[in-house]
Amino acid sequence: MNQHYPFVNTPLPYGYDALEPYIDGRTMQLHHDRHLETYINNLNAILINYKELHDLSLEELIGKALFYPPEIKNPIINNAGGVYNHQFYFNAIHPLSTMDGEKNMPVGELSQGIDQVFGSVEQFKHQLTKAALSVFGSGYAWLIAGAGGRLTIVTTPNQNTPQLARYAPILNVDVWEHAYYLKHANRRADYLTDWFQLINWKEANQKFIDGVL
Ligand code: MN
What we know:
Layout: H1 25-47, H2 58-63, H3 70-92, H4 108-118, H5 121-134, E1 139-145, E2 151-157, E3 168-174, H6 181-184, H7 188-196, H8 201-212
Helix pairs in contact: 1-3, 4-5, 4-8, 5-7
Bound molecules: manganese (II) ion (MN).
């Protein structure tokens, strides 16, 4: 994801209905084509007159946001964050590749890291679910890796992003209601149970390896 201004809404790497029955096609279509697209359009509109920012990646825009003039500081945190967080979310899940009823489990170095830090996959799921349920209003829960590959679960409000200079994001789950309300209504916990079935563990393991080295 080395895009810079003008940002474009690239297609999902799978069909809108490819994640059913866990996440429905209508939700995915609205989420990608309307919600993410709005963040992209807003970000481009904010940046149009700031030519010095046109070569920056999303990560760079977010990382430097504290130094921007007040009129664009929060708009960039919200909208560059909105683009980054959504692209990360859509790329971290994929159509279920396991057989019906089989569990979707971590692989490789990340699997070992999760066992070391959380004790077991079940404990990891429990803690990530607890964190995601604790987000008041809208935001995200993340699995991130810090120095030495130390895994931690954090939450961010709104479209804030973990400090990308210090942590490598491994997974995020969007708990804004637009991510689940059509299918799961107000049952965020049920959405999280379904989301766990869709994690692209191979991709997450690659992010862990890349982030630690
Ligand atoms: Mn969203």
